[in-house]
Specification:
alpha+beta; Kinesin; 2 domains; three-stranded antiparallel sheet; 32% helix; binds adenosine-5'-triphosphate; ATP binding; P-loop_NTPase; Kinesin_motor_dom; microtubule motor activity; motor protein
Length: 480
């Protein structure tokens, strides 16, 4: 987990009668590989994953694969379940009361860890939201008197924030189970031909942990020794509307789901191609900036279902996971210049957009990172401070209680980078500048390298995707 930016695990759910005919040779797991038919069904393709699980793997086993992310509580982490509708994402993340999924297991282990940390004061709190038709809704808000209203995403220092999102302190597993069940019942689901309880929204649960030194926590600024925001995302599944038999309302939801997932795919492609990712295109990718293009550790769990009707979806899902785990150097999110009121930011090197820096070693902190967030023992609604993703502090900044001092004039060396890292970045910048200069001076391409000459075999959805890629390409080219 240390040397890579994004990890990918694959999980095959068990075969059920409704899945129809299934030939086990067409989807099989062996050690850390998974083999499946290509989307045309003409040959077997084998993908290497960091871990892969077959239909017999227990929830505990899958959780054990997530635990390395938790070992170092000082880093932010994101676990994302990805896959087509009915492939087992909600089962994997949420699970059932008999077989709890990753979310309850992570909460339990964080609460267990915090109980055992003597001499420290640990606050654990959660936020939980859903993105339904590209609108953000709070799943923990008090809804007694009012219908839920969409929340806005604002940005501060390049980090998304959601004013008004409920932050709920969690003292015990009992506390968590109670609110989690209510919140899950609120999450929009509907019956489709592929899943009687199909999620119509992406759900993101965020766990915030603060550890303070008991001896000093009463002094001025407080002593936040660490803070981390594990994110646990159960995405809605991509849908083939011929198979789901969606009505008009379901179709509108399905369109929003498919659009946001193709944006997600495009971001991965842009990062791999060394381009600046277009995070702002939809709410999902805006909120996942740090997970995909920033410093958070990220694990994609690619869920797939056995059966002929899932063949294309399985192949696409596994291809997506395969591409995601190829991301090594992530593109740093742009941070605006207006940092006068922010002493830490002014002392930090301001990373350039598109500068490839290895996640955890780069420095990025805001003054809000240092603020003590004290939560009363009841639901609080956050209005003017960080709700999501804004307070991320690398250990190197907080544990020594020393802020990185970097002169503003002259070249800066981000704290934590070795000489070799700096040399590598300079080399990469040089070659990037050269290739960009080449692009600017070259004639516009007459044909795009990634466009198939014969696209008659593409589905309508694939054509739309390709069209969007071309428009992005043209826009980029035009800007250059
Ligand atoms: N590993 C598993 N073991 C047993 N049952 C499973 C497993 N994975 C999924 N299932 C069952 O398969 C069905 C579909 O799973 P689930 O609802 O998690 O799919 P999903 O990917 O979240 O779908 P959607 O995107 O439509 O919400 C459920 O009945 C679930 O209980």
């Amino acid at each position: 987990m240390q040397d890579k930016s994004i990890q990918a695990h694959a999980r095959v759910r068990p075969h059920v009668v409704d899945d129809g005919h299934f030939n086990p040779a067409h989807l099989s797991v062996s050690s850390n590989t998974i083999s499946t038919l290509n989307s045309a069904g003409s040959s077997l393709v084998t993908f290497s994953y960091d871990r892969s699980y077959d239909g017999h793997s227990s929830q505990k086993t899958v959780f054990e694969g997530v635990q390395p992310l938790q070992v170092d509580l000082f880093l932010n982490a994101t676990v994302v379940a990805f896959g087509v509708t009915g492939s087992g994402k909600t089962f994997t993340m949420q699970g059932t009361s008999e077989e709890p999924g990753i979310i309850p297991q992570v909460v339990e282990s964080i609460l267990g860890d915090s109980a055992g940390s003597s001499g420290r004061n640990v606050d654990v709190s959660v936020t939980y939201l859903e993105i339904l038709k590209d609108q953000v809704y709070d799943l923990l808000a008090d809804r007694t008197d009012n219908t839920p209203q969409p929340l806005q995403i604002l940005e501060s220092q390049g980090q998304p924030q959601i004013p008004g999102l409920t932050v709920l302190p969690i003292g015990s597993m009992g506390d968590f189970d109670a609110v989690y069940q209510v919140a899950n019942a609120r999450r929009k689901t509907a019956s489709t031909k592929l899943n009687s309880q199909s999620s119509r929204s992406h759900a993101i649960l965020s766990i915030h942990v603060e550890i303070r030194d008991e001896k000093t926590h009463s002094t001025a600024k407080g002593k936040i020794m660490t803070r981390t925001d594990p994110w646990l995302c159960d995405l809605a599944g991509s849908e083939n509307n011929r198979l789901t038999g969606n009505d008009k309302e379901r179709m509108a939801e399905s369109k929003a789901i498919n659009t946001s997932l193709s944006h997600l795919g495009r971001i991965v492609d842009q990062i791999l191609a060394g381009q600046k990712p277009s995070f702002r295109t939809c709410k999902l990718t805006r909120l996942m900036q740090d997970s995909l293009g920033g410093t958070s550790r990220c694990l994609m769990i690619c869920c797939v279902a056995p059966g002929e009707k899932y063949r294309a979806g399985t192949f696409n899902t596994l291809q997506f996971g395969d591409r995601s785990k190829k991301i090594k150097d992530r593109i740093y999110i742009d941070i605006p210049d207006s940092s006068k009121e922010d002493p830490i930011t002014t002392q930090c090197p301001r990373p350039r957009a598109s500068l490839p820096i290895r996640g955890p070693s780069s420095v990025r902190a805001t003054s809000s990172s240092m603020r003590r967030v004290s939560l009363p023992a009841r639901t609080v609604s956050v209005t003017s401070r960080t709700s999501i993703g804004a307070t991320r502090v690398p250990l190197s900044v907080l544990s020594n209680n020393a802020r990185p001092m970097v002169k503003n004039d002259g070249p800066v060396k981000p704290s934590g980078l070795t000489e070799d890292d700096v040399k590598r970045i300079v080399r990469e910048l040089q070659s990037k500048t050269e290739s960009e200069a080449e692009l600017i001076h070259s004639e516009p391409r007459t044909s795009m390298p990634f466009v198939k000459e014969d696209n008659t075999s593409l589905t309508e959805e694939q054509k739309q995707d390709r069209f969007r890629v071309l428009v992005d390409f043209a826009r980029d080219h035009h800007e250059k």
